[in-house]
Specification:
This protein is α+β, with helices and mostly antiparallel strands and 304 residues long. The chain contains 7 helices and 14 strands. The protein has helices at 2-12, 22-34, 75-84, 131-149, 211-215, 221-240, 244-253, and strands at 44-45, 48-52, 66-72, 92-98, 116-122, 155-158, 162-165, 168-179, 184-193, 260-265, 268-277, 283-287, 292-295, 300-302. A hairpin with a 2-residue loop joins strand 7 and strand 8. Helix 4 (131-149) crosses helix 7. Bound molecules: biotinyl-5-AMP (BT5). Residues 74-76, 98, 101-104, 107-111, 117-119, 161-162, 169, 172-174, 190-192, 194, 204, 208 line the site of biotinyl-5-AMP.
Length: 304
Amino acid sequence: MKKELRKYWNSKLVHGSLTGNSRKKSSLTKIFQEISSPPGEREGVRGKYRRMTSPTLDTRVFGKKIYSYTKVESTNEIAYRLAEHGAEEGTVVIAGEQTKGKGRADHYWFSPSGGLWLSLILRPLTASSSISRLSLLGALGITASIKRMFPLLSPGIRWPNDAVINEKKVGGVLCRAKNGQKKVVFLIMGIGVNVNIGEFPSPLCFAATSLKRETGCRVSGEAFQHFLLGELERLYFSFLGDSPALLTEIRLSSSLLGKQIKVKISQEEFTGLVQDIDEEGRLVLRLESGIQRRISSEEGYISG
Ligand code: BT5
């Protein structure tokens, strides 16, 4: 298995520039031009998008290519189109601000400047059912980075895709896959983290928090981004290797284990005790009736 993984990763290695295939290169360039935000809102030199390589980033694949924008509708949409045109695994799209940031089920995602809004292109070669696990992996990436940067904070994962501090949401993950017949063609992992957001609009002010609010000081977005890409790559490696350590880490970081919660499935609400998160990323709930139920992230959401 180790040998296979090494071969896989070596085949994925990129070195900061678009490689070989010039047809692919020109097709990608076209996408960047199509996805133009109004002049003046782009980051870049002479009307070209800035593609940053990050020399200090200690990753092998993630973030070796970063497309950085000042303002876009949604980084997930851009990443999806780039992936459709062959962008490599590990490519990252980042924006300073999103005007139509998205959550699951088309929820609105508040994304003014001051947050970290990024989308990662993955090509995991796994069965289509891995979205639940990768959403948890993304949330774990956020909490692990927070712990590394701020050891005194105690962030947790709130199934299926939230990173929370003191039960307030500090970040969220939105995965969208393009599925082939049996496998995922590519998967976009969108991650939003409230880094330096000082105030939230009223519907969010009691439910959301930011690193700045929790630490009381301004946080370096760039440093956090480096931690995040490093942690995400480490966890993704673990995911590809089917390591049981990943599920253990997810369970240990879960803020819901042992708690009584309400889950809505279609129009029905269930109350139960959270017993576990299983190998498929499903929530294992002991309902009041005593029956055990496994709930996937596509099926249900927490309502209280
Ligand atoms: C999520 O959805 O938590 C997924 C968030 C993913 C955002 C990233 S940013 C980069 C990429 N590009 C995108 O367009 N999206 C991704 P969900 O679990 O459905 O949570 C959405 C709910 O969280 C909303 O209905 C609000 O209640 C709340 N919310 C919205 N903005 C928030 C924020 N900035 N911080 C905390 N909570 C927020």
